[in-house]
Amino acid sequence: MGQDDHKFRLGEVLVVCAPSGTGKSTLIAMLRERYPDFGFSVSYTTRAPRGAEQDGREYHFVSRETFVAMRSKGAFCEWAEVHGNFYGTATKPVEAMLHQGQDVLFDIDVQGAKQLKKTFYKGTFVFLLPPSREELVRRLKGRGTDSEESIAKRLTNASGELAQAEWFDYWVVNDDLDAAYKELEAVYLAGKCKPSLRPGILDNIMRTWENNG
Ligand code: 5GP
C-alpha cells in the first residue's frame, strides 16, 4: 500500500474538551509534539493575546465587530461565548486540512464541541476529567494565575461542563499525566482506524486478490 494509503485516507477530527485546570493544554501540547503533522484549528477570538501568544499561531485575535461580521456571513462551523469573550472555528481551513488527509485537533469548549458533533458526527470526541474537585482546586491555585473569584467561577463552570461529559465518545481521567497521555494517544489512534476514515482501502486490498485470482 505505502503511498497509496494516503490517497484513501481522510483526516480525523479529534475534539478535546475539559474543565479549566484539568491539564488539557499540557496534554494537547504533548500530542502535537509527538505528532507534528497534526493540523491544528486556529480559532478566532475576541479576547486579548496573553503572554507570548502570537496572532495566527495560538489564535486569530479579532475585534468583536469583525467576529460578529464573520459569524453573520456563516464563516464559523461552531462558536461560543466563554468567560465573556467570543471564540469560533472557521470552516474553510478545517475542511481544507481534512480533505488533504490531515488529522485536525480542536481545543474548544463544550458548547462548541456539541455544535461540531452535528457536523462531524463521525469524529472522535474526548472529555478530560479531573480526578476530583479537591484536586482541581489544588491545580487551579497552584497555577498562581487566577484570583479567588476567577477560581470560584471556573469551579462553577466545571460542574456545568461535567454535566455534559455524558455524550462524549471517550473519557480520560487526568490523575497521572503520563497515564492520561497514553490514553489520549490511544483514543486518537483508535479513531484513525475507523472504516469511515479509510474509504477505498478495502477495495484496494480486494483488488490484489482479483489480480492474482
Ligand atoms: P483560553 O482563552 O483560555 O485560551 O480559552 C478558553 C476556553 O475557550 C478553552 O476551553 C478553549 O478550549 C475554548 N476555545 C478556544 N477556542 C475555541 C473555539 O474556537 N470555539 C469554542 N467553542 N471554544 C474555544
TrEMBL record:
EC identifiers of the protein: 2.7.4.8
GO molecular function, one term: ATP binding
Pfam families: Guanylate_kin (PF00625)
Signal peptide start and end residues: none
Domain Guanylate kinase-like: 11-189
NCBIfam families: guanyl_kin (TIGR03263)
Family: Belongs to the guanylate kinase family.
Protein name: Guanylate kinase
Organism of provenance: Pseudodesulfovibrio hydrargyri
